[in-house]
Write a structure and sequence with these properties.
The complex is a heterodimer of chains A (66) and B (176). In chain A, helix 1 packs antiparallel against helix 3. Chain A is mostly helical and 66 residues long. Chain A has 3 helices and 1 strand, in the order βααα. The radius of gyration of chain A is 14 Å and the shape is globular. Chain B is α+β, with helices and mostly antiparallel strands. Chain B is built from 4 helices and 7 strands; from the N terminus they run ββββββααβαα. In chain B, strands 1-2-3-4-5-6-7 form a 7-stranded antiparallel sheet. Chain B is globular. The chains are: A mainly alpha (66), B alpha+beta (176). At the A-B interface, strand 1, helix 1 and helix 3 of A face strand 1, strand 2, strand 3, strand 4 and strand 5 of B. Strand 1 of chain A pairs parallel with strand 1 of chain B, so a sheet runs across the interface.
Chain lengths: 66, 176
Amino acid sequence: MVSKKATRTRPDELTREEGWALLDSEARRYLDMSAEEFTRTWDAGGFPDVDTPEVIRVAALLPFVR
Amino acid sequence: MSAGGYGEVAPDHRPHTLTLADRTTALGGASRLALSLDHHYQITRAEGGAVYRVTTAAYFYALDDVADPGAVAREILAYHWHPDVRLADGTRIAYPHLHINRGAIRLDIADGVRIAPASNLLRADLAKAHLPTRRIALEDVVRLAIEQFGVEHLRGDWDAALRASRESFRRERTWT
């Protein structure tokens, strides 16, 4: 409906490993850190501002790895 | 893409999540927008019941400015509801809210004052604000993109399709 790309009706399901790879890719893209570093910092409450586009877009992927 | 499949989980279990394969998807039209969505959900069943229920656990819907294809997308606005996310000060924003972000500033203005597109020209309080909203459905964001941002629709029955889907959501939701 909104994508220029071909649409599919059923989503791909990611494995835990694929979820880690996605989280790692997005953490590097938005925050220049690895997935491990992101999860460690997130769990420790180490982000001074959580609700920024960069942090929250990576955090939204946490269910892929947990 | 989804994680955790489609199986039933306990209400306190971590949710499944659904996102776009590219995380952000370019939308057609002159306004050069992209849609980002992450939707967390749980599949539950009343004790002894046969009816399953899909319940939203959190949502993150955003429209980005992708006017400069070589640059990092700039978020214009984002509708969020993430009651379990704890902010740095330990508080939670439990209500649905709207963020306005640096993508709301025209790039030509940023260029005119020689400020990098990644800079945030918004008032600091607005840039951090969680503007209260009602519960927002994905259909609301798609309609917003089409009707108010000039995004091209790809099917002739988009209006009826959105209405039907939105009505189904309205019937089944347990909070607004």
